[in-house]
Structures are given as structure tokens and as C-alpha cells.
Design brief:
alpha/beta; about 35% helix; Rossmann fold; globular; single chain
């Protein structure tokens, strides 16, 4: 299967230049489960959109420090592309910003997280495991870093996970699946990001993040579930 990766990450900092880019991280994620699947990345944040998204067997939308509510010039075209993919029932997965963008495009709402920054190893309670994710643990731990969340699901969506009582993922039929968190992040990357964000997180948030990072995420089983999602959806 040939997947498109829609890169929305706007970070051009020195930190970002020292670490793998999102196109590589998402390719590595799916290659954990299906190493022979090709991927093609599009720098959506720079206005690089695929000429024909339907040529791909599936699509992944990455995370971003940008807000889906920021009205940056590339966001409205992305939301319209999401609506097109939904109408065509094209297999689509979104993580963090991607999760929020899918919700916003299809009638949901995004808001500031009432708890502020959520960062580190995050426990996701699977509220309705889809058929492609039956092997995920009931408590699926994923790395995360976000200060906004999906406050209202699209009308046709079914919640699949919660975290601290807030939405952490949803599905629409068998062609859309999302996660508020970052299954593509490695332990090395989230540890480095925690140091980079030390001031933003505050003392308590930083210490709590380091404590959680003594454990690893459920990245491998999530990658297998993601591959099964694309296989069944296509």
C-alpha cells in the first residue's frame, strides 16, 4: 500500500533541525508493521498539496505546533481536502494536529486544554476498540505533547479513546481513525523534546514528564493496528 504523509509541522527551530522530520517519523511508524509500504510526503504547511490524493491507498496527517484555529493560509485548503477524503471514504489517519484538523473539518470543535500542556507518556483508555485495534491494551500508552484538544466530536464520529477524561481519539465508519497523541515519536525524541520544553512545561510538568518517560510507549502494537486499519479500509 502506498501512503501519503501530509506534513503540517511548522517547526524550523535548531532543535527541529537536529532530529528526524515528521515525514521520516511517520514512515518509520508504519514500517514497524509493514516495512515494504512506500510513502510520499507533502509539505502541507508550505502549500505543497498532492495533485490527486485519490492515487494513494491511505493518508496520514501529522502533528504540528500550529493551531488548527490559527487561520494560517494552508489550513482552510487542508480542511477542505479532509472533507473530500471523507466524502470519498478514503482511508485517513490523523495524529494530534491531524486528529484535531479532521474533527474541525467535519463539524467538531477544538479548544484549549483545560489542564494546560499535556506532555510525556500519556495513558489512553480505549473506550471502544475498533476491529483493527483489538490487540491494543485497554490502557494504551503513547507519547504526547499538546495544549489543545477536541472539545466536540463530529456528529458521525465514535469516540475510541479518552485521556484524563478528555477525548483522545475517534473513528468515523471504517475509513477514519485518529489519536490525540503521537504514536510516531520515539523515546529518544520525546526525551529530547521534554528537555527543549522544560520552561514551557513548568517545574511540575517537567518532573511529571520525566517520571512517565521511565517507561516505553505502546508504539509497536499501535503501528500494527494502524497497518490493519489501512488494510481493512482499503
Amino acid at each position: 500500500m502506498h501512503l501519503a504523509i501530509l506534513v503540517t509541522n511548522t517547526d524550523t527551530s535548531a532543535f527541529a533541525q537536529e532530529h528526524p522530520k515528521d515525514a521520516e517519523k511517520f514512515a518509520d511508524l508504519i514500517h514497524l508493521a509493514r516495512p515494504d509500504w512506500p510513502t510520499t510526503a507533502f509539505q502541507i504547511h508550505a502549500g505543497e498539496f498532492p495533485a490527486d490524493i485519490t492515487k494513494f491507498d491511505g493518508v496520514m496527517i501529522t502533528g504540528s505546533p500550529a493551531s488548527t484555529r490559527s487561520e494560517l493560509p494552508w489550513i482552510a485548503p487542508l480542511l477542505e481536502l479532509i472533507r473530500d477524503m471523507n466524502r470519498a471514504k478514503q482511508p485517513l489517519f490523523g495524529a494530534c494536529f491531524g486528529h484535531q484538523a479532521i474533527a474541525l473539518a467535519l463539524g467538531g470543535a477544538v479548544a484549549s486544554n483545560p489542564c494546560g500542556w499535556v506532555h510525556g507518556l500519556i495513558s489512553n483508555q480505549m473506550t471502544a476498540r475498533p476491529e483493527w485495534a483489538q490487540d491494543l491494551p485497554q490502557q494504551t500508552d503513547l507519547y504526547g505533547s499538546h495544549s489543545e484538544y477536541v472539545a466536540q466530536l463530529p456528529e458521525q464520529a465514535q469516540e475510541t479513546a479518552t485521556s484524563s477524561g478528555l477525548n483522545a481519539g475517534f473513528r468515523i465508519g471504517t475509513h477514519i481513525w485518529t489519536s490525540q497523541h503521537h504514536p510516531e515519536m520515539s523515546h529518544h525524541f520525546i526525551t529530547a523534546l521534554t528537555e527543549e520544553m522544560k520552561q514551557s512545561l513548568g517545574t511540575d510538568g517537567y518532573v511529571q514528564a520525566l517520571k512517565g518517560l521511565r517507561q516505553l510507549s505502546d508504539q509497536a502494537p499501535f503501528a500494527e493496528s494502524l497497518a490493519r486499519f489501512f488494510e481493512q479500509a482499503r
